[in-house]
Every structure is written in structure tokens, then in C-alpha cells.
Amino acid sequence: MGVELVVATCLGGGLGYLADAKLGTVPWLALVGVVLGITAGIRNVLRLARELEDAAKGGSGSDDGR
Amino acid sequence: MENPLEHFQLHRVAELHLFGLDVSINQGVLTMWFAVAALFTLFAVAAAKRETVPGMVQNIAEIGVEFIHDLAEDNIGHNGHRYVPFLISLFLFVLFLNMWGLIPGQFTVTSQLIVTATLALIVYAISLIVGFYKHGLKFLRILVPSGTPGWLIPLMIPVELLSNLARPMSLSVRLFANMTAGHTVLAVLFGMVVSLPIWVKWLPFGLTVMISGLEVLIAFIQAYIFVILTCVYFGDAENLGH
Questions:
Q1: Residue-level pLDDT at B217
Q2: Given this model, what pLDDT does residue B58 score?
Q3: DSSP H or E run through B25
Q4: Which of the four pLDDT bands, split at 50, 70 and 90, describes residue A63?
Q5: pTM score over 0.95
Q6: Residue closest to B196 by CA, chosen among B178, B184, B208
Q7: In chain A, positions 5-64, which contact chain B (CB-CB < 8 Å)?
Q8: Which residue has the higher pLDDT, A59 or B20?
């Protein structure tokens, strides 16, 4: 679960930094990327928790849940 | 004390160069070949007789297949059975490699990020291909979850794009990190068993026994999680993620 947060944050920051390096606006896009990455990470954790819960329940909620 | 990370090092068994690429065979490649051969043999033996009342080998194979089949039906939907061959190959391959690494002296292939990343990228590529094949450009709607208010859409698209791109990364890092961490802990404790004086040796030794048991559980759980997340990603591609 923690992996989701780390990976998404690093990905957001990394892509932001790459865009920065291209455009020459160094800290700003990376900061925006980190914030978006954290948001995406939290979203992934919530979604993952919900889906693992559905899977643990064993099928009954598979079609109506999503 | 010996370096606890040493057993993750790759050693070349045979030098091989093809078209200017270094494709030398190392012990990881050998282990994977062995895994494929062992699993293939298991299923060849299991499917040889096809009795109504299954024997032991056939029983093991059937339990495995049914387990994955139910997982696929639950998480992907009514098209789930189409993915069962891929999912069961993935599950047994990862499970075998995880378990094999726990045998002392054997190499853990799933502790190599390149292996788990390749598996995760295959999964990701299939989910994208299925999504675009089934839904065409409408597949891009997964970037806007249903029920998003209009003013949030410009914000949700980058967030969803990032969370989607993070999927193969987290899938590969999770498996790799779990395997690497567990084996490093075991190696450190074994190092202590060797290097500590005799009257405290029992403490790290007892811990290695307990953690080995835990590692067996983790080896199974990680293979299970890998496959269940694969099912979830395929399910999102099949049903447009709602």
C-alpha cells in the first residue's frame, strides 16, 4: 500500500522535473507534479483498498460495485 | 560479516552476444528456464490422464486453475475466463520463483527489478491494448471517473493520468521490494548467526526460523496480490473502470 504513495509521488515529481528541465522553469512544474502525484497516490490507495475488499468478499459485489 | 546484499548479485554462466547486444546467460535466466520447465511438466503430467476422479497431480493443478478462474470471474466480469491462461501462467511463475528463492543457496529472480518490471509492463500493455481495442478512443474516459463535477475535470485528468501511469511501477516495485527486503533480513540474521559468539547465536537463529515461516507466507501473498491487481487492471480495461 505504501508503495502506491511513494511511486505516484516520485512519478509526478520526476515528470514535473523533466518538463522543467525542458522548459527552463526549474522548481515550479516539479512542485505541481509532486502535489498531483500525492493526490494520485492517495486516490490509488483508496481505490486499491476498495478493490481488495471487494475481492476478499468473493464476487458478490463484483458487478454492482464497479 | 559477509555482505548481506551479495546474494542478489548476478553471475554469468555463459557469455552470449547477439546482434551487438549482451544477452549473456546468468543464474537468474537459468532459474526462470527451470521454473518454466517445472511448471510445464506439472501441467503436462496433470493433463495427461484427465480422469473424472483426479489423482494427486491433477488435483493440485485443478485447485490452482479453479482458484485463478474464480479470481478472474470476480474481478474482471463475464469475460474473465478469457484471461485465465495468462493469469495462471503469471501466478504460478511468480509463486514458483518466490518460493524457489526461499530454498537456501538458490537465487530469487523476483528480487530483480528488471524481471518484475517486465512482468508489470506486459500486464500494463495488455490492459491498454484490451481497453483501446474494446472501447476505441472512448477508453480515454477512464481518465475522468464517473460522477466528476465539470469544474474538476481539468484537475482530474492529470491526477488520473498519473495514477494510471503509476500502476505498472507500483506493481513491479511492490513485488521486488517485498522479496528483496525479506531476503536481506534473512541474510543479515544468518550473518549474525555466523559471526556472534556462541552464547547469543541462538537469538538470531531463532529469528531466522520465524522469519523464514513469514517469508513463505509473503511469497504466496505477493504472488496473489500481483495477480489480483492484474485482474483489477484488466477489469478496468474491460468495463471502463466503473
A1: 92
A2: 82
A3: strand B25-26
A4: very low
A5: no
A6: B208
A7: 6-8, 11-12, 15, 36-37, 39-41, 43-44, 47-48, 51-52, 54-55, 58-59, 62-63
A8: B20
Q: How far apart are CA B154 and CA B144, in angstroms?
A: 9
Residue A64 belongs to some domain of the structure: no
B229 to chain A: which residues are within 8 Å by CB? 48
Give the count of domains, chain A. Answer: 1
Q: Which residues of chain B have pLDDT under 50?
A: none
Task: Count the domains in chain B.
Answer: 1
Decide if B1 is inside a domain.
Answer: no
Q: How close, in Å, is residue B44 to chain A by CA atoms?
A: 30
Tell me whether A4 touches chain B (CB under 8 Å). Answer: yes
Q: How many residues does chain A have?
A: 66
Largest pairwise CA distance in chain A: 52
- B150 is in which domain, residue-wise? 6-239
pLDDT of residue B172: 92
Domain extent for A32: 2-56
On chain B, the residues whose CB falls within 8 A of the CB of A4 are 166, 170
Strand pairing category for B25-26 and B21-22? unpaired
Q: What ipTM describes this predicted complex?
A: 0.76
